[in-house]
Amino acid sequence: METREQWKSSLGFVLAAAGSAVGLGNLWGFAYRASQGGGLAFILLYILIVLVVCLPVLVAEMVLGRSTGKSPLIAPIQAAGNKWQPMGWLFVIASIGILAFYAVLMGWTADTFFHSLFFGLPGNMSEAETFFGSISSGSSVLLGQLLSLILTASVVAAGVRGGIEKLTKWCVPLLFLLLVVLAIWSATLPGTWEGYRTFLLRWDTSEFFNSTTIRNAFTQAFFSLSLGIGVMIAYSSYLDRSKKLPKQALAVASLDTSVGILAGMVTFPIVMSFGLKEAVSSSTVGTLFISLPTGLGTLGITGRIVAILFFALAFLAAITSSISLLEVPVASLMDRLGWSRYKSVLISTGLIFLIGIPSALDLNVLGKMDSIFGGVLLILGGFLLSVLLGWVVPRKFDEDLSSSNSEIRVRRYLKFMLRWVSPPVIAFGLVVSFMDLLKNWS
Ligand code: PHE
Fold first, then answer.
1. How much is the pLDDT for 129?
2. Half-sphere exposure of 226 toward its Cβ, with a 13 Å CA cutoff?
3. Ligand 1 near 322 CB (within 6 A)
4. Whose C-alpha in 27, 43, 76, 367 is 20 to 30 A from the C-alpha of 402?
């Protein structure tokens, strides 16, 4: 038996986990879900779900990974027996499904980056539609998707320390810095307040009862935290006992949520300053790739530089997430079939490329895959995790978390939340999301 790889440092683990969390979900997903009209109700629900429901589940997922030292496919069985095998499969299927369309989005991002760099930005809305049409169809999409997957695969093939930790250690701080600079710049635009008010701060009490707003908030919380899909199991299985998980989970969640909000502060003022509100509400998944380049296009060379920076940042954010998605099937194949890392990466990547082709060719398919794999399946994963760690094997917490005085209180709190709060709240979110998905299917 080879010994299991380990992170080099605790910071390395936090940055890798934060890198997984911070991704296109924060930049593209947040913009597109916030633009669907929930306003402040959407934001508040999203933050509330993160704090009350997701944080305990995040620690639970980490505890499951560290205490078993197994891949996402095997960890549930190791913890609670064969009955829990479907949960492992759910993780593997959901991560493959997400990465399949995520790579397509990464291709769009890279394409927009190169376009801004070499050719400049669209000058008006119709040029932007043409531009988006060209990046989201034809052979260039497949090429972008393939190259993004190859890049992802090469990092994962280099291993936990040599690939994942090395990349995320410099990417995540750089990304944060870039985003702060852009948010400050965005705050100086003429439409800033209008943008914040229209998309982020608009108050409408009835939105709290709107099933689409509720689904968006749950989906955004789970997707953005990379939660309920086994990524955190995989990453924590490479972590040693001395690290304090609750603290690290808090760091990851705070980083991720602030990046989400910061990203909204970059995108919405731009959209508003250039009168692109209509474009946002009529297009869904394309929001970021249509309105942002168009808005920036009216600003001459400054706009072009900002676009180049923004889409470079988005690509970095995406790759630190895509590697974590690939690590789920890869670790599982290594664990289950005893394959080498290299072989597992090769086979998983090939499969993911094939599964992603329909979403590369059809925007509708992409939207559907996002709703299923990136939405309800994650919420279901979160529900199962809270039941597993809250009810079936709560002793994992005692075994895994240290027994210093301060941690005992944290542990009690987490166990209480996982038992009594997370399961019913997530079950509610799951049912509402599922019904809403059915309602909006066609
Ligand atoms: N959290 C990532 C993002 O916000 C996406 C992701 C989801 C990554 C699930 C891993 C697992 O873009």
1. 80
2. 35
3. no
4. 76
Q: Which of 9-13, 69-73, 95-99 has the lowest mean pLDDT?
A: 9-13
Question: Which residue puts its alpha carbon closest to atom 7 of ligand 1?
Answer: 226
**Mutational test site, ligand 1, from 99, 105, 224, 330, max ligand atoms within 8 Å of CB:** 224
CA-proximal residue: ligand 1, atom 4 (nearest): 25
Give 1's pLDDT tier (boundaries 50, 70, 90): very low
Q: Find out whether the beta carbon of 75 lies less than 6 Å from any atom of ligand 1.
A: no
Residue 123 CA, ligand 1 centroid: distance in Å: 32
Kindly report, residue by residue over 311-370, the tens digit of the pLDDT.
998 999 999 999 999 999 999 999 999 999 999 999 999 999 999 999 999 888 998 999
Closest CA to 43 of 265, 314, 310: 265
Q: Is the CB of 24 under 6 A from ligand 1?
A: yes
pLDDT tens for residues 28-75? 888 778 777 788 999 999 999 999 999 999 999 999 999 999 999 999
Cα 67 to averaged position of ligand 1 atoms, centre (Å) = 23
| Any ligand 1 atom below 6 A from CB of 231 | yes
User: Which residue from 321, 330, 370, 376 has its CB within 8 A of the most atoms of ligand 1, so it is best to mutate?
Assistant: 321
What does the pLDDT read at residue 406? Answer: 66
- What single-letter amino acid sits at 61? E
Do residues 229 and 95 make contact, with C-beta atoms less than 8 angstroms apart? Answer: yes
Determine the distance separating the centroid of ligand 1 and the alpha carbon of 126, expressed in angstroms. 31
141 within ligand 1 shell (Cβ under 6 A): no
Give the predicted TM-score (pTM) of the model: 0.95
Q: Which two tokens stand for residue 375?
A: 């939405």
Q: CB–CB of 76/70 below 8 Å?
A: no
Task: Answer whether 320's CB lies under 8 Å from 312's CB.
Answer: no
pLDDT tens, 274-306?
Answer: 666 665 555 556 677 887 888 888 888 999 998
